[in-house]
Amino acid sequence: MGEEHLRGLLARGLAGDASAYHAFLKELSAHLRAFFRKRLGRLPDEVEDLVQESLLAVHIQRHTYDPGQRLTPWVYALARYKLIDLLRRRARTDLLHDPLDENNEDFGASDSEAAEARRDIAKLLEALPDRQRLPILYVKLEGLSVAETAHHTGMSEAAVKVGVHRGLKALAAKLRSAS
Amino acid sequence: MNTDDLVTLLAHGAEPVDSRATARRFLVAIAGGSVVAVMLSAGLLGIRSTPLDGSSIPMFWTREVFCAILGVVGVVAVRQLGRPGLRLGWLPLGYAAPLVVMWLLAAVALLGADPQDRASLIFGQTASVCPLLIALLSTPLFAALVWLMKGLAPTRLRLAGAACGSAAGAIGALAYTLHCPELAAPFLGIWYVLGMLIPTAVGALIGPRLLRW
Q: Which range has the worst mean pLDDT, A35-44, B66-75, B190-199?
């Protein structure tokens, strides 16, 4: 399980294969967990929060991945950015006892035990306005199609898609400011 | 929410990603910002058709190519810095090469000139307004590139901001050449470069604040 395998899953996911995309995110979350656990030795509580924040970022920013590019540097540049952002927000740079070197591991380490994060995305979701909350609720949580969601909510299909996209971005922003 | 639930949530109904959408945004930002810069230059400052003769044509094109190369390098830098994990590669050299060539040309021109002519090679007629006008013309493109960058995922925010500023500055300078009568290499190597540096410095300054995500 490495670069090529994950890259193949992501390529299929970007083409619209939701189950390949699910497998990609699931395996990626294990790598991210190992990455953050190794670097946040003194802040174990932050690990799962950062895993979730990074997964959300990977999803929102997946259009910036160029299929011709190696996946490992893309993922770890993003994860490192989220890690540094967190440490900066906490203004606790003295916890950076592990140098954030540029050497990316090769998707070697992985830790597949998913856990609860301290900042609960479900709770943050409730605080979103209806035009974002309902599309995410129906499309993303209940698995309805965009057309069905449009029918249920009285929104247009375009508005449903925009609602999902903007809603996830708003969630990511709330996740950042909640820490 | 458990991380596995989040994974399921994100994957549910994930639409195919249109890889051309980003390219379209690039095109809109650069074309839009450049057109506004040219309109500002032509409309606000006025096109000045400098009479060219055999001796001034090479420097005319040197000036255009100098700005154009730095503009292309800047746009490539924006592209690279907007995507996580991409290397800068030859970009530092791409910035350095046109600058070094221009400064060499300037040195040759200054050394070959009579001492009393050197000041006019350096200051021309318009040194006092040139950098500010270039910076002014670069603002629409700078705003467009920052908008573009905000839709990408820069991880080095200061560099990303500087890249936006340098691309906007160089293309702004290219638009300014419609109006500018100066062709001497020492002038271009100082005042044009200074004009491009203003938006670059502004970008580096505001990048970390403006481009966070």
A: A35-44
The stretch A51-61 carries a mean pLDDT of 94
Query: What residue in A sits closest to B4 (Cα-Cα)?
Result: A114
Contact B85 A121 (CB under 8 A): no
Domain count, chain B: 1
Q: Which CATH class is domain A114-178?
A: mainly alpha
Task: Name the residue range of residue B96's domain.
Answer: 21-46+69-210
- B125 occurs within a structural domain: yes
- Burial of A102 per CB tally in 10 Å (0-12, 13-18, 19+): exposed
Among B4, B12, B22, the residue with its CB nearest the CB of A18 is: B12
What CA–CA distance (Å, rounded) separates B14 from B27? 26
Residue of chain A whose Cα is closest to the Cα of B3: A114
The answer to whether B9 faces chain A, any CB pair under 8 Å, is yes
What pLDDT score does A135 carry?
Answer: 92
| pLDDT tens digits for range B29-41 | 999 999 999 999 9
Chain A neighbors of B84, CB-CB under 8 A: 61, 64, 73-75, 77-78, 81
For residue A102, which residues of chain B lie inside 8 Å, CB to CB?
none
Q: Is B21 on the interface with A (CB under 8 A)?
A: yes
B84, part of any domain:
yes
CATH of domain A3-96: 1.10.1740.10
pLDDT score of A103 more than 70: no
Position A100 confidence tier, pLDDT thresholds 50, 70, 90: low
DSSP B110-156: HHHS-GGGHHHHHHTTTTTTHHHHHHHHHHHHHHHHHHHHHTS--SS
Task: Give tens-digit pLDDT for B46-72.
Answer: 888 777 777 788 999 999 999 999 999
In a domain, B16, yes or no: no
Determine the Cα–Cα distance for residues B88 and B79; give it in Å rounded to an integer: 10
Give how far B1 is from chain A: nearest CA, Å. Answer: 5
Burial class (CB in 10 A: 0-12, 13-18, 19+), A18: middle
| Residue B154 lies inside a defined structural domain of this protein | yes
Least confident of A87-96, B50-59, B81-90: A87-96
Reading the block at residue A97, the tokens are 């006892």
How is chain A split into domains, by residue range? 3-96, 114-178
